[in-house]
Amino acid sequence: MAMAPSSVNKQSSRTDESQSSEIELLSCPVCYEPLMRKGPPGLILQAICRSSFDCKKCYKSYSSEHNYLDLTVTAGLKKYVEVKPVGTELFRRSFMSFIYEKGYRQYFRRYGFPGPDEEFKMAQDYFKSTEGGVLVDVSCGSGLFAIRFAKSGTYSGVVALDFSENMLLQCYDYLMRDPTNFLATDLVLVRADVSRLPFTSCSVDAVHAGAALHCWPSPSNAVAEITRVLRSGGIFVGTTFLRSSPSSTSWIFKPLNERVLPSGNYFREEEIEDLCTSCGLTNYSSKVDQSFIIFSAQKP
Ligand SMILES: C[S@@+](CC[C@H](N)C(=O)[O-])C[C@H]1O[C@@H](n2cnc3c(N)ncnc32)[C@H](O)[C@@H]1O
User: How far is the CA of 66 from the centre of ligand 1 (A)?
Assistant: First the structure.
């Protein structure tokens, strides 16, 4: 039986009960034990930035630098450097985070993406049953959906999560410039790898992943992780580019996204459904327009 949305309290003056919900939400990326928090409560950016988080099992500590909480396995490492595949590394560059909403994202319209406002509405329709719960915008980029989700007031908390430090910094910059003093609302910025989500199992009501599946190093590990963190009845909504037809095999005829990210994971629709089903998600549904697909699946 599907469970009710998670109980992160909507009030800004959080109770002890809501604090413990939040402690149970964030987990250590190494062992998945819930993190112990020292600092002001609340899934609010300023409160998270003033808190430190400890794992009592592996004695690791995590804290915020540059206004996002780094919950990657490599957080705080001084010597070890790991280079991820191009779909991840490309977006860590500062020029990508700078141009992303200033032209790059607009180009997606050529391939059937209806644009952020319409994509947001479509996602909100799929997320109806999760209203009042916690939403994680995985691979949020510069926050064009996370900010809309948080501003909608539909959720008790929104986590904007990305692996790219520069995308998170850009997101913070957009928040700072928001005339509605938006920083005080229920939105936090977390750096993490989609294949190692820093949330306890069955703690999240809704996961959104806009235009991201094709960038992930391992979509199967990512969807498995998303399934693990969703509560029973929780919803996963994603958008991506479908693979172009084999007739356009020459590089010059390939869509821009496939030329920029030639090693990206572009799938046919039945592959995406197969992936969701193999991770145990049900009630798959989708809408397709040219190369654009928005799909939804539910944790039973
Ligand atoms: C094309 S952008 C999508 C941004 C936004 N969600 C949108 O709809 O426009 C893809 C995002 O995936 C992120 N990404 C790539 N690899 C990732 C990983 N391993 N874990 C988390 N995010 C990742 C990138 O940093 C980038 O911000």
Answer: 19
